[in-house]
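Whiteboard transcription, Tuesday session. T.W. wrote the structure tokens on the left side:
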């Protein structure tokens, strides 16, 4: 992904997140060795980058729903997994 594509993706994420700091998603990938996940945000279907998880919020199964907090750092977006939705 080049820089222009990345900036367009950030704009799309900002538009679909409706300025809310919280979104939910489904786990699309996980790394057990460093306890991070990727999630597909709903309803946009955009996949996050690798997300750190709060203690007790690591999900090691594809398809589990999680609550994410969005942190805006200038023009970049980062997500932290707050918990698993049941």
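and on the right, the sequence the group agreed on:
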């Amino acid at each position: 992904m080049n820089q222009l594509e990345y900036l367009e993706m950030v704009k799309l994420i900002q538009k679909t997140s409706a300025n809310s700091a919280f979104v939910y998603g489904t786990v699309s990938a996980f790394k057990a060795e460093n306890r991070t996940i990727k999630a597909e945000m709903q309803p946009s279907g955009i996949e996050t980058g690798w997300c750190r998880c709060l203690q007790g919020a690591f999900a090691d199964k594809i398809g589990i729903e999680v609550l994410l907090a969005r942190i805006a750092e200038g023009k970049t977006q980062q997500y932290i997994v707050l918990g698993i939705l049941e």
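Someone added at the bottom: The two ends are 34 Å apart (CA to CA).
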